[in-house]
Amino acid sequence: MSVELSEKEINERANEKRRKHKAAKDKLLATKTKEGGLLVVHTGKGKGKTTAAMGIVARCIGHGKKIGIVQFVKGKWETGERVVLEAFPELVEITAMGEGFTWETQDRARDIKAAAGAWARAKEMIEDPKLFLVLLDEINIVLRNDYIDINEVVEYLGNKPSHKHIICTGRNAKKELIGIADLVTEMTEVKHHFRDGFKAQAGIEF
Fold it and tell me: What is the CATH architecture of 34-188?
């Protein structure tokens, strides 16, 4: 026959469980001593890849860190986050090299040229010792379309300056990039409002 516990006994058991959990966490955290630049990949069909990256950028700004951003695709979009970031010109460098999504340009040769220019600018930022983090926004799209050689990108990022943090966003990240990344997050679409007829809205999509 089960014995019904008092509220005090329930709280004491719960508190003891939390104490053990904290002790285990503290022990685990004590083993984490490495520091250095991370290669982060945000990919997947779900919404929020660039948004999550911009959250990290905002965090860097809060710590007074300098950031470089290269937009490989979204050159035509006047996004809300870009307007906000431009309020911190002493901390953020933004270069929009894309000319819109590939279905907007309908010109593969022009897309390849824009991608090459964006990659050249990205390498300049990565080599800049003043920049703490570099965001390569939508680079996964141009890599998936083979506008930039994935082997060149992987070799370069695999030998990046050891202190530099880099974030690569965009769906369909190639396995070669995922293989060398330190942190990979896949956004999974469960439900999308576009399917119910909603259009892109300021403050939500851009």
Answer: 3-Layer(aba) Sandwich (3.40)
